[in-house]
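@channel sequence for tomorrow's demo:
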Amino acid sequence: MKKTTRKNLSIFYIVPAMSILLLFLVIPLIYTLYCSLFNLDYLVKGEFLGLGNYVSLLKNSRVIKSFNFTFMITIVSTALSVIIGLVLALWIDRKEGLFAYLIEMFGLIPWVISMMVAALLWRWLFNGDLGLFNMILRGLGFNPIYVVQNKTSAIIALIFVLVWRLVGYAMIMILAGLKGLDTTLIEAAKIDGASPLQLLRYIKLPLIKTSVLLSTIVLTVSNFTNNTVPKVLTSGGPNDATNVITLYQYNLGFRYYQFGTSAALSIMIMLITSLIIVLYIKLSDYRI
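structure tokens (generated this afternoon):
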């Protein structure tokens, strides 16, 4: 009787969470999949297309270009975030006291503040007429730099903001791995005459491999699905130079009102990110 009561209670406890999950995740996902199979321009249900929306997207050169650009900035920004985060974590791990705690705290600020607020801040800083950077340049007698109006500088600015936002997270994740290392191994290696470079290469890096891999997966998903920063910072310009795939999908639905095609593209994005999440789950069980 007690076992039955406990089982019923456990089901009762998880019903609210499962109901919320069903309402806000499963049902919208099923409806999005349903919409992706129809011609749904201006929310007017048209003919059944089956996989027609998916085929048209794969044949669209702008979609392929947007996917390629998204993969590029995802790889570059994630790699830079992890490398800089690793360097900062290794440096902080050797420090103690208030200064180290302050670096950790300030490093996390870009991660915890709203992406919208952060993107608006950087958009103002990069503004060619009223931005702080150009005000300083004018004060020094230099010509202003219109960052988001130039293709190359807009891409660099976008990558910079993505790295600025995520490097603190990578630093904390890797630092947590470093703090969990067995100090006896490091001390034994020092006694055997290992140099700092050898300690890093043969002791520390292999032991924090899990932290590095997991932070890489999390940052990859975050960068690949980030729509807010590109939309606010560059609006996909100039001339679609920074038009990431999530921004392209957003514009399909809410600018051109091609909701069926937009739904199909969102399913494609979901499948790609799901593959990354599966990899994350696999790596979460990784053991040295």
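heads up for whoever presents: The mean pLDDT is 87.
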